[in-house]
Design a protein that fits this description.
The chain is built from six helices and no strands. It is mainly alpha-helical.
Length: 87
């Protein structure tokens, strides 16, 4: 393979992941709402029907959230989804 063809196959640097920014915004929203309610992470997880460790990861912004989990979180906090993503 010639050099000109080889450079075509070199990987490019991907743009910053917009999904990661959403994880960070959700994490901040969860912490804000939990603090507003005066709950521990364990209590928030219990009310949302989630494993406490998974809830902790959501608050840290290290895992993706499913729509079902997002719905559970909104119900537990009594807020709409937009409120959890506000900065």
């Amino acid at each position: 393979m010639g050099t000109e063809l080889r450079s075509f196959y070199l990987p490019t640097v991907p743009p910053k992941d917009p999904g990661h920014r959403l994880q960070i915004r959700l994490a901040a929203g969860l912490r804000r709402e939990r603090s507003r309610q005066g709950w521990t992470q364990e209590r928030a997880a219990e009310l949302a029907g989630l494993n406490p460790r998974h809830y902790q990861k959501l608050e840290n912004g290290t895992v993706n959230v499913t729509l079902r989990t997002l719905e559970r979180l909104c119900r537990a906090y009594g807020v709409d989804v937009g409120r959890l993503f506000r900065t």
